[in-house]
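Hi R.,

Here's the chain you asked about this morning:
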Amino acid sequence: MTQTISINLGGLLFHIDDEAYKILQSYLKSVEKQFVDETEKSEIISDIEARLSELFEERIDRKKDLISAPDVKAVMTIMGEPHDFADNKEPEPAKKKRSYRSKRTSKRMYRDVDDRVLGGVCSGIGAYFKIDPWIFRAIFIVFTFFFLSGFIIYLILWVTIPEALTTAQKLEMRGKPINVENIKNTVKEEFENVKRRMNL
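And the predicted structure, written out as tokens:
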């Protein structure tokens, strides 16, 4: 007989079996240990938990509403092991080995509200295609002045393309793997950008 536990992870409720719960709890404790000295610790952990809940939600369907140990292990493989993203110095061969473990990344179009002039449409398109957003801004300006369609197209895209609000969405917009290491780096980068703006 398997004991089940209800947990709240990233604002979502999940039913998880006892073995899976122990593995998940151990994993989260190991992750937290890596960020003990980080000033952005609570934001990093919160974003990691949100990403874990997204991954668990993908694995649950109508036939299966219980998270099992294989589910937790599969999600841990996607997110990365704590020793994979430790800040300690490691030799070059070990670093190369780690990069092979990165999973296939999904890429999605979002509006980049962190680098917006108006609605973040051009910034999002630029991030998606890895092109300077000013090129897309210039295209929209030209189409607006000469064909009068640029502004209408921009408004349509503004309404239809969602904002990149979470760290996972910001990584997905750029086509980067959504794992613990990248979540940590993105949160730290955002904190540095806020500090820079406050000092201006």
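The two ends are 61 Å apart (CA to CA).

Let me know if you need anything else.
M.
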